[in-house]
Write a structure and sequence with these properties.
The chain has 122 residues and is of the alpha+beta class. It has one domain: Ribosomal Protein S5, domain 2 (2-Layer Sandwich), CATH 3.30.230. The chain contains 4 helices and 4 strands. The longest helix is centred in the middle third of the chain and has 17 residues. The radius of gyration is 14 Å and the shape is globular.
Length: 122
C-alpha cells in the first residue's frame, strides 16, 4: 500500500474510528499493510516525525502487531462477508492506516497505545 489510489480506497471503503489523538482506518485485503500519516496540520517536519514515531510505537506494542489478533479485529469491524461491498474478503489480511491528529503532540507513547487499543475494542 504505497500508491495514492490505495490510500483513497482505504479512506473511502474502510472502517473508520476517530479518537482524540489519532484516526484508525481498516480495510480487509488479501495481504497485510500498515501506514502512518501525519499531515502538515500536525505541524512542521519535526512535529510530524514525532507523531509518526508515536504511531509506529503504538502499532508495534498494540493488538494489531500480533497476526493472531487480526481475525478478531476483522470480525468486529466487518462482521458481514469479511468486508464492505466491493472489497475482497481476502485471506485474512488487513490494510491499516493510522493518522495522527494535532493533540498527539501533547501525549506520551502510552497514551497513544491506550487510545489505539480503545478504538480497536469498539
Amino acid at each position: 500500500m504505497n500508491h495514492r489510489e490505495d490510500f483513497h480506497k482505504v479512506y473511502e471503503r474502510g472502517a473508520k474510528r476517530v479518537g482524540r489523538l489519532l484516526v484508525v482506518y481498516l480495510l480487509p485485503a488479501g495481504d497485510f499493510a500498515r501506514s502512518v500519516v501525519a499531515s502538515r496540520k500536525v505541524g512542521g517536519a519535526v512535529k510530524r516525525n514525532r507523531a509518526k514515531r508515536l504511531l509506529r510505537e503504538a502499532y508495534r506494542n498494540g493488538p494489531l502487531a500480533d497476526p493472531a489478533n487480526v481475525p478478531g479485529v476483522r470480525a468486529r469491524f466487518f462482521p458481514e462477508s469479511g468486508g464492505p461491498e466491493g472489497t475482497p474478503a481476502g485471506d485474512g489480511g488487513l490494510w491499516i492506516v493510522l493518522v495522527a491528529r494535532h493533540r498527539i503532540l501533547t501525549a506520551g507513547a502510552q497514551d497513544v497505545l491506550n487510545e489505539l487499543q480503545e478504538l480497536l475494542a469498539d
